[in-house]
Structure formats: structure tokens, C-alpha cells
Design a protein that fits this description.
The protein is of the alpha/beta class and 235 residues long. The protein is built from eight helices and ten strands. It has one domain: 3-Layer(aba) Sandwich (Rossmann fold), CATH 3.40.50. Strands 6-7-8-3-9-10 form a six-stranded mixed sheet, sandwiched between helices. A four-stranded antiparallel sheet has the order 2-1-4-5, with helices on one face.
């Protein structure tokens, strides 16, 4: 199998008034292309720092990171931003939609930064929204006029529109009721079954069980977890 994410001996150190603090310590992780993995840990464990490094939102202090076969250390900030836009689709707990902008425009926007021809953008956005299970009648509505579950589906559509190799989801059900959250997690399973690589960040073991593999993070160190397949979720 091809390795999509390859972290080798990653350490991240922040300078504080109390001195240097290691948010991550010698973290190594390989995620195969087409895998659905969850990274689970409590608040303060380092999972947000790890997510930011995987998502190319931050750089490690030490160690190497290869993403989709690319050594990220050699990229300039401009190149890193362009590579991130093409390679990773983000889904956040807080949705991160533009509230006064239409559903359709929220999904069109990422394509403005990746060179998609203007004439293709609407069609691709509508296809992504349809894939996310959204009815065309909501496309003209502003994102603050729809339900939380619909907002998260819009966010998923936005994450798909540039056809990224990886979807990185940070506590994606945190602002949803349990029924809607389960529907969103089931959608991630469907996307994974279609070949998408999914990395899910969570503190909740019940959510982590939707993935085919779980790793645990605590005090900035990663611990491999046992595989928990679909049969474990329904148990």
C-alpha cells in the first residue's frame, strides 16, 4: 500500500514564559492511502498540535513529514499553502463556514485558490453538495439559515470539492446531536469505502470506533491502539 501520511520522530516545542514546552515528543505515524484512522486523546494531550502538523497548518520543530509522497520540509510557505489546498480537505467542529454567504458559495470558495476554471466551479460545488446528501433547494440559503447537521454536510462538501487525497476531521460531531452525529460519521465511512483517506481527531472512544484503526495520544506521545472494525461499533 502507498503511504499517505508519514511522520517520523516529530517533536514540537513551544517557547513560553516558563521555558520551552514539548507539545509533541518523538511522534512517528504512518497512515496508508485509503485508511480510516482515528487519533484519540483528552484535552491537552497534544492532538490539536498533531492535527495542525498533519494539516500543514504548523511545522514541527524536529523530525520529518512526508505527505502524499512530498517532503513538506522543502516547501516554502506559499508552496505549502497551495499543496495543503490541493491535498487536504478540512472538517472542523465549528464548521468554519461564512455565515452570511450562501451554501453554494461556501463550497465554491476553496476552488478559487487552486486554479479551478471559473466555468467548472459551480458544477463541481453542486456535485460535492449532492454527494454530501444535501437538497438543491438549500444551495441559495445563507449558511446561518440551515441546521447544524446541514452545516456540517456543507463543510464536508467543501472538504471534497478540490478532490483531496486526505480528509482531516477535527471533532466533527462536537456541535451536533447524537443522531445527526452518527449520520455524519456514517458519511465518513461511505467516503472511506469510496477510497478516501480519513483522519479523525476525537476525545470520544465511541466516535473513534467508527475508524478501522485508533491511535492514542497522551502527554505529546503516540500509542498504537488495537484495530476496531465495523463489527465492534455495532456490538
Amino acid at each position: 500500500m502507498t503511504i499517505a501520511v508519514d511522520l517520523q520522530h516529530i517533536t514540537k516545542i513551544y517557547s513560553t514564559a516558563a521555558g520551552d514546552q514539548a507539545a509533541l515528543s518523538d511522534v512517528s505515524l504512518a497512515v496508508e492511502e485509503g485508511e480510516f484512522i482515528s487519533i484519540m486523546g483528552p484535552s491537552g494531550s497534544g492532538k490539536s498540535t498533531l492535527m495542525n502538523i498533519i494539516g500543514l497548518l504548523d511545522r514541527p520543530s524536529y523530525g520529518s513529514y512526508w505527505l502524499a509522497g512530498q517532503d513538506t520540509a522543502v516547501l516554502t510557505e506559499r508552496e505549502l499553502a497551495a499543496f495543503r489546498a490541493r491535498t487536504i480537505g478540512f472538517v472542523f467542529q465549528s464548521f468554519n463556514l461564512l455565515s452570511r454567504t450562501s451554501v453554494l458559495k461556501n463550497v465554491v470558495l476553496p476552488m478559487e485558490y487552486t486554479g479551478v476554471a471559473r466555468g467548472e466551479r459551480r458544477g463541481r460545488a453542486e456535485a460535492a453538495l449532492k454527494a454530501a446528501g444535501l437538497d438543491p433547494e438549500i444551495y441559495p440559503h445563507k449558511s446561518n439559515e440551515i441546521s447544524g447537521g446541514q452545516m456540517q454536510r456543507v463543510a464536508i462538501a467543501r472538504s471534497l470539492v478540490n478532490d483531496p487525497a486526505i480528509i482531516l476531521a477535527d471533532e466533527p460531531t462536537g456541535n451536533l446531536d447524537s443522531k445527526t452525529g452518527q449520520a455524519v460519521l456514517s458519511m465518513f465511512r461511505e467516503l472511506n469505502a469510496a477510497g478516501r483517506t480519513i483522519i479523525l481527531i476525537t476525545h470520544d472512544p465511541g466516535i473513534a470506533r467508527y475508524a478501522s484503526r485508533t491511535v492514542h495520544i497522551l502527554d505529546g506521545r503516540l500509542f498504537e491502539g488495537a484495530a476496531v472494525g465495523a463489527e465492534a461499533v455495532s456490538a
